[in-house]
């Protein structure tokens, strides 16, 4: 089989390249920046001398000068004339509209406001968090990168706290404060919106709707800041907060913009710095569970901010912020992009990216999100949440008493700790503390989700009216699942391989069959997890390598064999993927059994949610996680990509399950 011959070659090379072993990856040490804040004056900290070094030693640019540069740019002049001709409006009117867009959008950095935030956030952070740990070596690399080339900061996005935290850390280390892309929602917050603007935020619409003028003003504004090195540019590659703690499929618009100056030869290089922010306990924990169940997101408002002050009485554990290695766009593009194509037309004339550029930017985006994932710090509670969820599902299916013995949970947590480290997880497990203390600390911090009673640990579900108990259970399960999801990037490739192996019926599996099942499952879940396009063979070899290295499998040229000691690990890995498989299966079942011929995309989620609730209450579904709207949307996207579902004009979704669709559901049935 030509594919398997290729896999065998790749696999042998992988075994010979020891530097690819995730266990050998060196990561920086952390320093708690709150330690000094607890023993010294916050006012003195806020008012201290702040003298960051900028790109090539340039001086900070006044907002008025920056706006003038944008409005006088050749690209904006070209688009203004183009819009004027297409709409029949006077060029001066279009220019005034462009000026108004820029006025609404632009940041207006004021050091006095930054100092105010530094003082207030010190008070808030010391109340909320036990520690904020930062890798100082990463900060030093960032300081060096800023002096050499324009810099783009790409933090992961799990909380509203992310952009405040980033600026707070950079101010602490005397690093140039970034200008931050923020949604227009925040601008509507009285007083707070303007304060965010004066601390470096610039406001953009969630979507541009094909508005050429808006896009031109926005892109020219970002590129002007970047090319001249006035400040690092910061945005969230995922576009929005992840409600499930899984990395989201990257959005490419802003990444296209910040790569454009290099591709057109306007700067020698651009440094992109992935930043991984890991929360031991997420502030929006309960809010996210409600949103996944269909409760609308509360509108951002100043009054809502003040109402949320009750969180100040809670303990949210620690935060780890890891500044990754700066990634050179020049090195990413080497051998991938022929930049001569940009010499064929004047640089100020906007043009749609070619397929080559789109592919390059897309691949780069996935690599950058993977870099974020690799440096996410996992806390012991993440392991506990995963074990407790699996135990909960197993007990419900078997009709057994809920929960598990605390000693058993501790033993399993130690086993999973060791497995996670073997698979390359960046795990923060206190080495000089006994496992029982580590487990007790994690359970105590998350006592809203778990209960310890008479030596047994179980999900915190109050006994009472059945429907109320059911709703509380869903809420708790979704919250615990969001913590379990933090470790999925470590296990997803081995889990896909484990599920592919599980589809076969005997201990000896033909490698070609296993690879084909792996490839199908990977394709199906490409909207669910961060799986780099075109890397199926590499992912398969990585999964094989990890499972062979840990003694789970033996792999020959023809077969994949499960070892005697490997069954426990395979059972754990397949159980991790089972809720997602059942979620996709139930969406297929909904489309097969219900009348969906005139269903619009907007109506899909409420309709499938009602269908799932009925099946859960009837006991026909095992996993409450399937109620997550995020999972349902991803399942629909997968079905569209696989050709089982088709969207037609008027946003009506023609729900027909073709032979391909039945094959899709059949494969999941085999897994179940």
UniProtKB/TrEMBL annotation:
Q: Which UniProt keywords apply?
A: Acyltransferase, Membrane, Transferase
Specify the domain of life of the species encoding this protein.
Eukaryota
What is this organism's lineage?
Answer: Eukaryota, Metazoa, Chordata, Craniata, Vertebrata
What is the protein's given name?
Answer: Glyceronephosphate O-acyltransferase
**SMART domains named in the record:** PlsC (SM00563)
Metabolic or biological pathway: Phospholipid metabolism
Q: Which organism is it from?
A: Dicentrarchus labrax (European seabass)
Q: Which GO terms describe its biological process?
A: ether lipid biosynthetic process; fatty acid metabolic process; phospholipid biosynthetic process; triglyceride biosynthetic process
Major place of residence: membrane
One of this protein's Pfam families, by short name? Acyltransferase
